[in-house]
Every structure is written in structure tokens, then in C-alpha cells.
């Protein structure tokens, strides 16, 4: 009897994870029937979306309220697609709020279906009580870090640690080739601006990062580039100052490798840039109501960036909320542009943090596939 797996991803980062996992699952067992809800990358791997996830990449309290009806409809459509497919295992990828609602819907209607969460909520940073909620909703968790596991042990949730997915997805970029394609000389200094992959991130963080880049450009002869995710390309294009090169998402590894320094919104992309040997300056802003709630009651970690969390030190300078200003970000990036020694020192520190995160180990998708097959066989 053919085994059936259903993958659920609600935004671009989850779509990438789902695509990697689908590829590995099929390589291991070509007879699997893999269906799902996701984006274009999963579709490329032969898993077209059975529900519309457009506009679900929301962040923050107010954005969540505004998107509530859209999220509710997408949850209902996803649960319906799962129940129709009758899979043996459902893998719920990232996107805590959305995938939790899907898990609860499936569990209520078809408790025999096994549920696997791939990437859990950041219980180590905020709201550790979510560990109990997740343990009651799913059968297995595939998480990034060893230090997440103790949060779930009291509730009996089995965990598999896969490491950071960006580490296994790493492909060396060709910075020299990108410079040649763009008409940049080998000695020209490049500032790479990465304002995020969600609409709210670009709206809140983008203007600060662009202003920081322009401050740096005033006293130096630099080139400024950006890589825009396909899902937000129009928004990025409308926001960037004149004369900025907007590169296609397919060129991102080359762009990351070519840059002298990156000014980036906190997220997976900071790890991806660091893997290419480029120093990163991190900025992040939430809506003020969300920030007030998070700061007062929720956020417990010293750092926002996973590299800094792994190192337990600020190896990549980060500026959150009130500290996320053009002046602060430009001041942190200036030494990287002006001093080869400062640049090499940050790269060395980032490399040490990446080693602590599991660089050089098995790809996360391979370990995640092991966990899914174990649940499937059990």
C-alpha cells in the first residue's frame, strides 16, 4: 500500500524547507505519494499547492488581527485538503500560528493521522508555555537546536534535532562572477541590503537599512545592491532609492559572496550571508504594540540573531527596535568597509558561531527525512 505524506508551508522560508524535504523523501522512496500546501519551490519538486497561502507571511499583533479572516480561510482550506488526501503523516513546517491551527483542526477531525512539526516556536526566546501547547497538538518535533529539547521533555514530546536548515542548503557563491556581470571591479566595495521577505518587515525595516546605506555612501565610493524575494519583489522595487541594483533571487548566493558587508533584517538570511563569508549587521523592528507586549512579557533571549544566540555573544552587531536607526547601523558597518582587519575579525567570529550551529554536519533535510520515515514506519 502506497504511503502518503502531506507537507504544509505557509510562507517562503517554509516553502524552501518543504521543497528540500520533498526532494530527499522522493530520493529515498520514489513510491511515496507526497501532496501539500506551499509555494513555488514545493511546486518545482512536484508538490503543487492545494490551498492558497498568498498573504499569510504576517508578523506582529496588529498585522495578525488584520489578516485574521485570510488566515482563518487558509486554515480551513488546508485542513479540508488534508482530510481529503487522507495522508499517513502530515508535516507542518514553521509558521507557528498557522500550522498550530491546522494541527488542531486535523487532530479534531482525524486523530489517526500522525502530525510532525518541522521547526518549532522559539520557546527559548519567548513564551516557553508554547512547548506544552505543541506537545498536546503533534506527535513529533523536528527542531533546530539541542537546547530546545529540554523545553519539551516534561510533556513527553519526542524531538529530533536537525541543525539549521541554511547550513545544509549552503552552496558556495561566486562573488567574482557577479561583480563581472554587474560591471563592478574586484576592488569596489559593495553594500548588500536585505530588508526581509515579509511585507511588514520591508515596510518597517527597509527604510532604515536604505538610509544607513546612503549614509555610508556619502563618504565612500560604494556600490549598493539588494536581492528581492519573488514574493515581495514589487514592494522592494517600489521602496529602493534610485540607482540601486535589484538582483534576482536566483543570484543570491553570488550576491552574498560578492558583498563587502550586508545590512539585513534578522532572519535565516543572516546565516546564509555569513556562510558566504560576508559580515552582517542586523536590524529589526516590530510594530510598537507588538514590541511593547513582547518586551514586557514575552521576549527572554539576549539576542535576536541565531548566530549570536549560538555564540552567546554579539558576533554580528544587532540593533533592535529603538536602536534600529540608520546612524547606529551605519556606524557598525563603517569599520567593516574601512578596515580589512575589522572585516576579517567579524568573519572569523561568525565562522566560529556557524561551527557551533552545526556547520559541516548532515543537511537538515536529511535528518528531517529520517524523522518523518520513523514516524511513518511507527
TrEMBL record:
Pfam families on file: LpxB
UniProt keyword terms in alphabetical order: Glycosyltransferase, Lipid A biosynthesis, Lipid biosynthesis, Lipid metabolism, Transferase
The UniProt record lists the keyword Transferase: yes
Catalytic activity: a lipid X + a UDP-2-N,3-O-bis[(3R)-3-hydroxyacyl]-alpha-D-glucosamine = a lipid A disaccharide + UDP + H(+)
Gene Ontology cellular-component annotations: membrane
GO molecular function list: lipid-A-disaccharide synthase activity; phospholipid binding
InterPro entries in UniProt: Glyco_trans_19 (IPR003835)
EC number: 2.4.1.182
Signal sequence annotation: none
Biological process according to GO: lipid A biosynthetic process
Family according to the record: Belongs to the LpxB family.
The protein's role, per its UniProt record: Condensation of UDP-2,3-diacylglucosamine and 2,3-diacylglucosamine-1-phosphate to form lipid A disaccharide, a precursor of lipid A, a phosphorylated glycolipid that anchors the lipopolysaccharide to the outer membrane of the cell.
UniProt cross-references to NCBIfam families, sorted A to Z: lpxB
PANTHER family to which the protein is assigned, alphabetical: LIPID-A-DISACCHARIDE SYNTHASE (PTHR30372), LIPID-A-DISACCHARIDE SYNTHASE, MITOCHONDRIAL-RELATED (PTHR30372:SF4)
This protein's name: Lipid-A-disaccharide synthase
Amino acid at each position: 500500500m502506497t504511503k502518503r505524506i502531506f507537507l504544509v508551508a505557509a510562507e517562503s522560508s517554509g516553502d524552501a524547507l518543504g521543497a528540500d524535504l520533498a526532494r530527499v523523501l522522493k530520493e529515498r522512496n520514489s513510491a511515496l505519494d507526497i501532496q501539500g500546501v506551499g509555494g513555488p519551490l514545493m511546486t518545482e519538486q512536484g508538490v503543487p499547492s492545494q490551498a492558497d497561502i498568498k498573504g499569510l507571511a504576517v508578523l506582529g499583533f496588529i498585522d495578525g488581527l488584520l489578516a485574521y479572516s485570510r488566515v482563518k480561510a487558509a486554515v480551513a482550506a488546508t485542513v479540508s485538503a488534508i482530510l481529503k488526501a487522507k495522508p499517513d503523516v502530515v508535516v507542518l513546517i514553521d509558521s507557528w500560528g498557522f500550522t498550530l491551527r491546522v494541527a488542531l483542526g486535523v487532530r479534531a477531525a482525524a486523530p489517526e493521522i500522525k502530525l510532525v512539526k518541522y521547526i518549532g516556536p522559539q520557546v527559548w526566546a519567548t513564551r516557553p508555555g508554547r512547548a506544552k501547547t505543541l506537545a498536546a497538538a503533534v506527535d513529533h518535533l523536528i527542531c533546530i537546536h539541542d537546547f530546545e529539547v529540554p523545553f519539551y521533555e516534561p510533556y513527553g514530546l519526542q524531538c529530533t534535532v536537525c541543525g539549521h536548515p541554511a547550513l545544509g542548503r549552503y552552496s558556495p557563491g561566486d562573488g567574482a562572477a557577479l561583480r563581472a556581470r554587474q560591471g563592478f571591479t574586484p576592488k569596489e566595495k559593495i553594500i548588500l541590503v536585505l530588508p526581509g521577505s515579509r511585507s511588514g518587515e520591508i515596510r518597517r525595516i527597509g527604510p532604515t537599512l536604505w538610509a544607513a546605506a546612503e549614509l555610508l555612501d556619502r563618504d565612500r565610493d560604494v556600490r549598493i545592491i539588494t536581492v528581492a524575494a519573488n514574493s515581495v519583489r514589487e514592494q522592494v522595487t517600489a521602496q529602493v532609492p534610485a540607482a540601486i541594483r535589484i538582483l534576482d533571487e536566483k543570484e543570491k548566493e553570488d550576491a552574498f559572496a560578492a558583498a563587502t558587508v550586508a545590512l539585513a533584517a534578522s532572519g535565516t538570511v543572516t546565516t546564509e550571508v555569513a556562510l558566504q563569508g560576508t559580515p552582517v549587521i542586523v536590524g529589526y523592528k516590530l510594530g510598537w504594540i507588538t514590541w511593547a507586549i513582547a518586551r514586557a512579557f514575552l521576549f527572554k533571549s539576549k539576542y535576536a540573531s541565531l548566530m549570536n544566540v549560538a555564540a552567546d555573544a554579539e558576533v554580528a552587531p544587532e540593533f533592535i527596535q529603538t536602536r534600529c536607526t540608520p546612524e547606529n547601523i551605519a556606524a557598525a558597518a563603517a569599520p567593516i568597509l574601512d578596515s580589512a582587519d575589522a572585516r576579517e575579525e567579524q568573519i572569523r567570529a561568525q565562522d566560529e558561531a556557524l561551527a557551533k550551529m552545526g556547520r559541516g554536519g548532515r543537511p537538515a533535510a536529511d535528518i528531517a527525512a529520517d524523522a518523518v520515515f520513523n514516524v511513518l514506519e511507527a
